């Protein structure tokens, strides 16, 4: 899965440094230099995390977080605030509106990547390489293996990516278009019916262990991965 970070920072030198450090660590980056540009970039496929400066031309980081939290599609995106403000009151304000962590400038690249990975492990498991397990169904992103109750399951690369996305985004309905954007990517032309084909293949791959019931069709809306029937 693409691990995309959105860097929102008005100082060009800091913005370029952040992007360079993140790309060296294997992330892809997009950057915005002001409030309006950041808003324009909030579209599918959404970033795994946002590095957000407190003070921005056209608005504040606090305002941007409030905007994120008002939209069902973006409220789950984790945010790390970047700021020169070290006062405890400011930190509390940032965390209270929904920031997941807070880094005070200046900071080292090592501290940044360590804090970023910690937040992703906590709130965005799709962006890390941890093994995911749901009711005996186990997916290992590193070895690219799927097993169920110690039985190895065979599936194609697209089914693997689809299952990975489902297992890291459970209990939520996704339309075919949303699945296409998140699993196939926005730069690939694929028909909606292709999603149905791969859903059928995925269900078949996990049916031997009885986990096909976790991949549910929601009539008129799309699909969800759920442990509740």
Question: What is the topological layout?
Answer:
Elements: E1 4-8, H1 12-24, E2 28-32, H2 35-40, E3 49-53, E4 55-56, E5 59-60, H3 61-70, E6 79-83, H4 88-96, E7 101-104, H5 109-123, E8 132-134, E9 137-140, E10 145-148, E11 151-153, H6 157-168, H7 176-184, H8 192-207, E12 215-218, E13 222-225
Parallel strand pairs: 1-2, 1-3, 3-6, 6-7
Antiparallel strand pairs: 4-5, 8-9, 9-10, 10-11, 12-13
Helix pairs in contact: 6-7, 6-8, 7-8
Task: Please give a structural write-up.
This is Phosphate regulon transcriptional regulatory protein PhoB. InterPro entries: CheY-like_superfamily (IPR011006), OmpR/PhoB-type_DNA-bd (IPR001867), Sig_transdc_resp-reg_C-effctor (IPR016032), Sig_transdc_resp-reg_PhoB (IPR011879), Sig_transdc_resp-reg_receiver (IPR001789), WalR-like (IPR039420), WH-like_DNA-bd_sf (IPR036388). The modification 4-aspartylphosphate is found at residue 53. Keywords: Activator, Cytoplasm, DNA-binding, Phosphate transport, Phosphoprotein, Transcription, Transcription regulation, Transport, Two-component regulatory system. Residues 129-227 form the OmpR/PhoB-type domain. The chain has 229 residues and is α/β, with parallel strands linked by helices. Helices cover 39% and strands 22% of the residues. It is built from eight helices and 13 strands. The chain has helices at residues 12-24, 35-40, 61-70, 88-96, 109-123, 157-168, 176-184, 192-207; strands spanning 4-8, 28-32, 49-53, 55-56, 59-60, 79-83, 101-104, 132-134, 137-140, 145-148, 151-153, 215-218, 222-225. The strands form four sheets. A five-stranded parallel β-sheet has the order 2-1-3-6-7, sandwiched between helices. A hairpin with a 2-residue loop joins strand 10 (145-148) and strand 11 (151-153). The chain is elongated and about 55 Å long. The two termini are 28 Å apart.
């Amino acid at each position: 899965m693409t691990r995309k970070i959105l860097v929102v920072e008005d100082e060009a030198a800091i913005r370029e440094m952040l992007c360079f450090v993140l790309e060296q660590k294997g992330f892809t980056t997009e950057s915005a230099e002001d409030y309006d540009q950041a808003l324009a970039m909030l579209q599918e496929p959404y970033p795994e995390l946002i590095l957000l400066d407190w003070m921005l031309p056209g608005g504040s980081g606090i305002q941007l977080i409030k905007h994120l939290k008002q939209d069902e599609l973006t409220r789950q995106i984790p945010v790390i605030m970047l700021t020169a403000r070290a006062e405890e009151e400011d930190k509390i304000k940032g965390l209270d509106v929904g920031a997941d962590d807070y880094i005070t400038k200046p900071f080292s690249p090592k501290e940044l990547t360590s804090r970023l990975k910690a937040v992703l492990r906590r709130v965005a498991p799709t962006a890390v390489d941890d093994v995911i397990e749901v009711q005996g169904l186990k997916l290992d992103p590193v070895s690219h293996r799927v097993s169920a109750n110690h039985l190895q399951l065979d599936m194609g690369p697209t089914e693997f990516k689809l299952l990975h996305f489902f297992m890291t985004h459970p209990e939520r309905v996704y339309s075919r278009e949303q699945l296409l954007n998140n699993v196939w990517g926005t730069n690939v032309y694929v028909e909606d019916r292709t999603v149905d084909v791969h859903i059928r293949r995925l269900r078949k791959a996990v049916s031997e262990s009885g986990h096909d019931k976790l991949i549910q069709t929601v009539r008129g809306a799309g699909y969800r991965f759920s442990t509740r029937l």
